[in-house]
Amino acid sequence: MAPPQAALDFVDFVNSSPTPYHAVKSASARFEKAGFTLIRERDSWASTLRPGGKYYLTRNGSSIVAFAIGRKWRPGNPVAIVGAHTDSPCLRVKPVSKKSNVGYLQVGVETYGGGIWHSWFDRDLSLAGRVMVREGDSVVQKLVKVDKPLLRIPTLAIHLHRQANFEPNNEIELFPIAGLAAAELNKAKPEEPKDEAMEEDEDFKPLEKMTVRHHPAVLDVVANEAGVDVASIVDFELVLYDTQKSVIGGINDEFVFSPRLDNLGMTYCSVEGLIASVSTADALEADSTIRLTVCFDHEEIGSQSAQGAHSNLLPSVLRRLSVLPGNRDAASDGSYEHVQHEAEEATAYEQTLTRSFLVSADMAHAVHPNYAGKYESSHQPAINGGTVIKINANQRYATNSPGIVLLQECARKAGVPLQLFVVRNDSPCGSTIGPGLAAKLGMRTLDLGNPQLSMHSIRETGGTADIGNAVKLFSQFFGSYGEIEPKILVD
Fold first, then answer.
1. Residue 475 binned pLDDT confidence (cut-offs 50, 70, 90)
2. Res 345: pLDDT
3. Looking at residue 191, what is its pLDDT?
4. What is the dihedral sign for C-alpha 455, 461, 466, 470?
5. Same fold, 5-88+259-327+335-487 and 90-241
6. Other CB atoms closer than 10 Å to residue 125's CB: what's the count?
7. pTM for the whole thing?
8. 90-241 in CATH: which number?
């Protein structure tokens, strides 16, 4: 039996998205194909946004918001939101990365997030990210993904290291090797092109040249991938990624073996769920809500950034949408007449927040067969057993009973299973964007995610059936929230 189509499509999404920048680019292409229109935060939306329209925007190229406006929208109406994040634990190239030792060229890296760093050893690694390139008088962003294995972090032979536990020092034992110093020394060095922009101030250099901060051979590869000269590279943000592709696996194709399941798994499902919910021509005709997907950067390091969940990104978008005129009757001269009164619109934002609902979508823990004792005996989520509702009495997750009732109704309508998860009382508990956004917005929130093994490893394991089920769940949530919400109201 062939694996589910959603799982195959997800594998393609992950393989094209080694960084948050690439994930946002991939998501943007999917929204464009589905008829969403690109808008920008810095522009006025008053003359652009219309009920029945579909739109998306990005911030920093690493966070994305997309929404579809019901044709019966009114200021202060609800917004149905699914929130995820685009980042994953990784190793990031340092601003000055040029290192060498005992004949090897090495690259200085910095840990990002809480990765299982020993899983990065003995893997075929390469570079991906964004490069800031000078084009005439402007500096533009270009994305790069080097498919060739360039780097490797070799383990020490067991003969020289007979410790039971492998706990590398992240500062001195995590540097990848990129080549041999002798090969670099013997390489003919072409004359470096002049940077015309610096000709007038040739004596003043605020920072060392990129060719001094990084190995020239590494810069050559990056420049070639970006299709530019080394001299035009002003700066970059590059991370290491595993060149082994995401694949379908297992005896019956029941698994996805993949990097970055946490959290590209839920990024993909939230994007495709929104697209699926508006796939028919009349999907928005009778809808009085806005359906919104947001995927943030920097969740793995606490969300405290201009493009993280604790920024003003979601509040500012919701504030602008909450006052969007809805009932506009065309006047005889072709202009629009706003039916809403100013007094009503003054509190539209607060009304929208109290009527809306956020599904915080971040991957969940599946029960591990070799460590079953680490899980609470009545809460052991199974891979392909359905999306997992995550609950924590200490509000590490924002789920409560009214939210569970609402989501259960969506799952019933969609015909997909759900599971429940709490951690053991003697175990630490992770968290998500859910509690922070719930507190910031005062919005009803529920935490969930698809189950997976090896969370934060360079190579993780999820279920093929769970992907399609989550897409169906989110699509149903978007499509039926306006109908269900008034029936499960707890003020």
1. very high
2. 78
3. 54
4. positive
5. no
6. 24
7. 0.93
8. 2.30.250.10
